[in-house]
């Protein structure tokens, strides 16, 4: 690990923690991404605190998500299905509640972009994932 001065280290830790929180919120708010914030958390913690990095990598959801994305550049099928389903249900509810055409068009456009982005990643096959965990 590179030596980082104390001010930079504090900024990295605070920023990493903020990204971790935003990624956690992203689990429940479809338009707020989870994985990019968690990848940034891992990057910031790697450069500032091995303790915090190891701590978050041992959180099953966080660690698995980051490892899968980092090692395979892929998303498990279950993750894709849950994410896209939650996205469209939440967007549908939002459109119904607001009842504004321009908001509906904007939300549909954003959701379509997010869906395309998620589907653009390879699907992580469970047999590859299990082989990796066993060894």
Descriptive tags:
135 residues; mainly alpha; 78% helix; two-stranded parallel sheet; globular
Brief synopsis:
With 135 residues, the protein is mainly alpha-helical. 78% of the residues lie in helices and 4% in strands.
Explain what you see.
With 135 residues, this protein is mainly alpha-helical. It is built from seven helices and two strands, in the order ααααβααβα. Helices cover 78% and strands 4% of the residues. α1 (6-26) runs antiparallel to α2.
Backbone structural class: mainly alpha
Please write the string of helix (H) and strand (E) elements: HHHHEHHEH
Main β-sheet, in a few words?
Answer: 2 strands, parallel
Number of helices: 7
Amount of helix: over 70%
Shape: globular
Q: Number of folding domains?
A: 2
Mean pLDDT: 85
Question: Any idea what the radius of gyration is?
Answer: 17 Å
Tell me what portion of residues adopts beta-strand conformation. Answer: under 5%
Biggest sheet strand line-up: 1-2
Termini, distance in Å? 26 Å
Low-confidence stretches: none
In total, the number of strands is 2
Ordered list of secondary-structure elements with their pairings:
Elements: H1 6-26, H2 35-46, H3 50-57, H4 60-72, E1 74-76, H5 77-98, H6 101-120, E2 122-124, H7 126-134
Parallel strand pairs: 1-2
Helix pairs in contact: 1-2, 2-3, 2-4, 5-6
């Amino acid at each position: 690990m590179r030596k980082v001065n104390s001010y930079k280290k504090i900024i990295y830790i605070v920023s990493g923690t903020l990204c971790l929180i935003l990624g956690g919120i992203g689990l429940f708010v479809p338009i707020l991404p989870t994985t990019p914030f968690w990848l940034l958390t891992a990057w910031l913690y790697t450069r500032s605190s091995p303790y915090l990095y190891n701590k978050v990598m041992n959180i099953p959801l966080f660690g698995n998500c980051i490892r899968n994305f980092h090692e395979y550049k892929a998303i498990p099928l279950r993750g894709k299905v849950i994410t896209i389903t939650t996205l469209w249900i939440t967007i549908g509810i939002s459109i119904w509640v607001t009842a504004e055409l321009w908001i509906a068009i904007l939300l549909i456009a954003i959701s379509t972009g997010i869906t395309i982005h998620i589907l653009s990643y390879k699907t992580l096959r469970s047999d590859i994932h299990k082989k990796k965990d066993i060894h």
